[in-house]
Amino acid sequence: MKKLILLLAIIVLSACSITNNYPINTVLTNQSLNGTIPIDKYLKNNFPTNSSAVQFEKKIPDIDLILNSTICFYKDYQGFYIYNVNDFWIQKNTLILLKDRNIIINYPFCSKIDITASNGKILYSKPIIALKNKNYLCFYDISACGKLLTRKYLSKNVYFFYPYLIFIKANRFAISFFTQKRPFFLGQIPHNIRDVFKFKNYLIFLENDGKLYAYNLKNLELFRNIKTSYQISNFVYSNNILLIKTKKHYIKFIKLIPLANSITFKVLKTFGPFKNVILARHSLYAYGDGKIYGLNSTIICDKPLKDFDFVDGIVFSFLREKKELFVFKLKKIFYKKIIFAHPHIKAYKEKDFIILFDIDGKEKIIDLSDNSTILATKYIDTKCLTPLIYLHGKLYKDREAIYKLAKIVNKNANWLMLRRTIGDNIYFYFEKTVKKSPENQLILLYKDKN
Predict the structure, then answer these.
(1) E strand residue ranges, 319-385
(2) Cα–Cα distance, 305 to 308 (Å, whole number)
(3) Cis ω on the peptide bond leading into residue 273 (within 30° of 0)?
(4) Within a domain: residue 398?
């Protein structure tokens, strides 16, 4: 009876057909896999350069469209989008993108591998890339820069740690070599398996209840559960370090230490609790409460990350649509954009306050007693308020300047260039040079108002 159950379980977990049955020792070629282009250098030419507001204000444009528009220099992270990306994998110095009908890799001798389908999920274990589609696993050898073999599978959860494939179904697992049809071992643990990683000669399974179990690949024995004092929600593993998220929203960096007949832990650092925290895909970083946390660094990041990885000071994240991968450095630069409209500035006086409809389109309240500015949180009725006159960057009441809004930074016979700074943003706009004196111009403006 036990043999029958074992046979049925193997069929259900693996259900594999193999189009090419390569022996395990023929997979690798003589090509070296130590020649990756460092990721920061590989992407260097894609990052935009800083736009200079200082350079822009040195010359008044001679194009009417620009002169009747607003130019905004705004700060944002130095980054760019890669479009049509279905999946990505970053591990140490290796960058893999599944884009269009290609696998893009930062190897000089194998920068691209053509594939038949553009969708799928990347499973990478040096030197093999596996693409997981609905019913098939397609294996590609980076060292040979080409397709190796295809396997059909039925198990929903499949993990790849070269040269092993692990099939998961509920609390059962099967282990096989990726080039062979049938598993060489079938096992189970008390509860359903949520995740698994390979640590030296062990497979470490995470149960749904947060406990860890270890399977020894050398002697084919299953340990009892690895004792921890916290329940694990999920984890990232790299280079003998385990980054875990607990069910109480803490993150812990833990060093794994193999002993003769067991595995022990050493907690290196703890952060939290967080309102919300997520772990990176494959690197030892977490994002929570507007910061990226690493073992040796904490960096402010005000982008709302959802699905990300972090390497060489570069963040990779799906921020918008699933296929738009945003790649950015954690430093901000100035970008330039044109708003094809001349700013329509309006202002009103109420006691010691100015109600301002500003150049950025926001309604603000300026306290003249301390020169502070806050955003208006609700609609302000201006019918009974005293309108102010705007001229050349200043607000006037009774022909007296009471507030300087912008600075004249350049001029010629026909135009003035004005600059207004709001937070990190710099706005440039243009006004025609007045032939009359400012005093006479104010008189005309007041007549127009009345």
Answers:
(1) 325-339, 346-350, 353-357, 363-367, 372-375
(2) 6
(3) yes
(4) yes
What is the total residue count of the chain?
A: 450
- Please give the full DSSP string across 220-278, using - where no structure is assigned: TEEEEEEP-SS-EEEEEEETTEEEEEETTS-EEEEEEEE-SS-EEEEEEEEE---SSEE
**Lookup: tokens for 92:** 């140490």
Please state the domain count of the chain.
1
Structural domain of residue 394, as residue ranges? 340-449
**Per-residue confidence (pLDDT) for residue 18, from 0 to 100:** 36
Residue 397 resides in a domain = yes
Report strand pairing: 353-357 vs 346-350. Answer: antiparallel
Q: DSSP secondary-structure letter at 46? A: G
Q: Which residues contact 240 (CB under 8 A, 6 or more apart)?
A: 199, 255, 256
Helix, strand, coil shares of the chain, percent, nearest 5, are 10, 50, 40
Q: What is the mean pLDDT of each run of 10 residues along the chain (450 residues)?
A: 42 39 35 70 94 95 93 96 92 90 91 84 93 89 91 83 93 91 87 92 88 84 73 92 93 89 87 94 95 95 92 89 88 95 89 91 91 85 86 88 93 93 95 67 51
Q: Which amino acid is residue 287, in one-letter code?
A: Y
CA pair distance 4, 58, nearest whole angstrom: 84
Rounded to 5 degrees, what are φ and ψ at 258?
-80, 130
Show the tokens assigned to 17: 């057909």
**Is residue 399 a part of any domain in this protein?**
yes
- Supply angle C-alpha 265, 223, 241, rounded to 5: 30
Q: How crowded is residue 165: how many other Cβ atoms within 10 Å of its Cβ?
A: 27
CA distance 117 to 100: 8
Which pLDDT belongs to residue 153? 78
Place of tokens 């925290």: 277
Q: What angle do CA 22, 26, 31 make, to 5 degrees?
A: 135
- Tell me if 326 sits within 8 A of 320, measured CB to CB: yes
Query: 3-class DSSP state for residue 98?
Result: strand
Integer Cα distance of 166 and 172 in angstroms:
10
